[in-house]
Specification:
alpha/beta, 13% strand
Length: 492
């Protein structure tokens, strides 16, 4: 039976009070699930209009099911294994602003709109010089936000009650601050009225946030059995772990308007989220991004399999305990306890978290999640952290798109894929050619925000590891690094 609001008679309807940029697996299994719980437990009474941030996406599939889908949570609750389904009915509609701009504009000017949620990937909150106020819509997410706020300001004549609260969920440091910075930058470039700037400052709130839930996504291997159990043909089922954690840095009045804690949810409002962010991003996300290429090129497809494998599991633990925890602030005992809880989640017997889903936008993720650990480790110790250096070499190897005679699909920004395609085509495999390839990658200031060739010994170290991977394969290269067989000397 097809899933829609006629066949799922228990589905409820709510007024649209939330505008969401992003229709992907994470937001649907995290923020939409949270709003759904709040509607059920504390009568939050809030529906969501979902905006597709790019010209291509999934809103047509979402609309085909009247915004309905199931979240399938698997994990540990109160020490016991748990599996549960939730029908998510808080999404009212999906909007493609590139093809239905008027519908998008109506959502912007909805007088009941109060919150904006987003997940446009780490690369989404960025400056686009080409955005103009008269575009329908603007290219970048900050450009869209600046324009929508100006439309709303004009339509409601600067009414402070029509301001919006932003919960950006992109995994970048100070995501709310950066979004606001670019919004104001667009407003200045477009020479908008001074009172509009005052309205943004006084009527809107851009919250820095941190999200945490592992979301493997669509369960393609088990979908037939799941649909039979549900009794619906749900093409948007999304699997997630039971664990969830959302840290929101905001004034007290925002928590009163978004009282998630009252619904029994692990949503924490704080005055300063710095410590929480550094721990989560550099340990959990850093371990994922730092290990994905090492594991995938070792022939391992999922996080759990990699963690339980002798070599890749040891690599992941060493990377966290030896190279990431030492650069984080906080008591050693507390940090090790936090890391233990994080790594235990990798063993979740119900989750098949595919490395290739983690590999999406790997370059921007590595810059956000792993580069700070590498640089801080060098600053503190005067030497490079070898597991992180090796993971950087492994990522470059991954972007070759071929290993052991097998080709695989890569998903990243087109310019990055074009860059690697050309760079690897020019590489003949000799040490000097490998070195030149690494030099080009580390020079990509658009990704790294600096020339990484300036970090002492980094270029030569990455080059040696990349040469080793190409010569003996990932499995043997990992063993050499773990057992400190000094592969750099062997290649000299």
């Amino acid at each position: 039976m097809k899933l829609n609001r006629e066949t799922a008679s228990q589905a409820k309807s709510y007024p649209s009070r939330i505008l969401q940029f992003g229709e992907g697996n994470f937001l649907r299994a995290f923020t939409d699930w949270i709003v759904n719980k709040m509607n059920q437990e504390i009568d939050f009474n809030s529906g969501i209009d979902v905006v597709q941030p790019l010209p291509t996406g999934m809103v047509d599939m979402l609309n085909d099911q009247d915004g309905l889908y199931h979240v399938y949570l698997k994990g540990i609750k109160d020490g016991e294994p748990i599996q549960e389904y939730s029908l998510i009915d808080c999404i009212n509609k999906g909007i493609n602003p590139y093809t239905h701009y008027e519908q998008y504009q109506n959502a912007i000017l909805n007088p009941e709109l109060r919150f904006v949620v987003s997940n446009t990937t780490e690369a989404g909150i960025s400056w686009d010089e080409n955005d103009r106020l008269d575009m329908k819509p603007q290219n970048s997410f900050p450009g869209k936000v600046a324009a929508l706020l100006h439309q709303r300001y004009k339509a409601f004549q600067g009414d402070p009650s029509k301001g919006l609260i932003f919960f950006p969920c992109e995994l970048i440091d100070r995501n709310g601050d950066i979004l606001k910075k670019y919004v104001l930058q667009h407003a200045r470039k477009w020479e908008l009225e001074a009172d509009f700037f005052d309205w943004i400052e006084n009527a809107c709130c851009f919250c820095n946030t941190l999200v945490d839930r592992i979301v493997p996504g669509f369960p393609k291997d088990d979908i037939q059995a799941i649909q039979e159990e549900l009794g619906f043909e749900d093409k948007l089922v999304v699997v997630g772990e039971y664990f969830h954690f959302w840290v929101i840095e905001a004034p007290e009045w925002v928590e009163k308007e978004f009282p998630a804690k009252k619904a029994g949810l692990d949503v924490k409002f704080v005055k300063d989220m710095t410590r929480y962010r550094e721990q989560k991003v550099q340990v959990l996300n850093g371990c994922h991004t730092g290990s994905y290429a090492v594991s995938f090129l070792s022939g391992i497809d999922t996080v759990r399999e990699a963690f339980e494998n002798l070599e890749t599991g040891e690599f992941m633990r060493d990377l966290v305990y030896d190279e990431v925890l030492p650069v984080l602030d906080g008591p050693d005992k507390e940090l090790k306890s936090f890391a233990k809880k994080i790594l235990e989640r990798f063993r979740n017997p119900y989750i098949r978290h595919q490395w290739q889903s983690i590999a999406l936008n790997a370059m921007s993720k590595w810059e956000t999640r792993n580069l700070p650990s590498l640089l801080h480790y060098y600053e503190n110790n005067g030497m490079l952290p070898q597991k992180l250096v090796f993971s950087l070499a492994a990522m470059i190897a991954y972007f070759k798109g071929e290993a052991n005679g097998q080709h695989y699909q890569i998903q990243d920004d087109k310019w990055i894929m074009d860059f690697y395609k050309e760079a690897w085509a020019e590489c003949d495999g000799r040490p000097i050619s490998i070195y030149q390839l690494v030099e080009k990658v580390l020079r990509l200031e658009k990704v790294w925000k600096r020339d990484l060739n300036e970090v002492p010994n980094l270029t030569i170290s990455v080059s040696h590891y990349l040469f080793l991977i190409q010569q003996v394969g990932m499995r043997k290269a990992v063993k050499a690094v773990l057992h400190k067989n000094n592969p750099l000397m062997q290649m000299s």
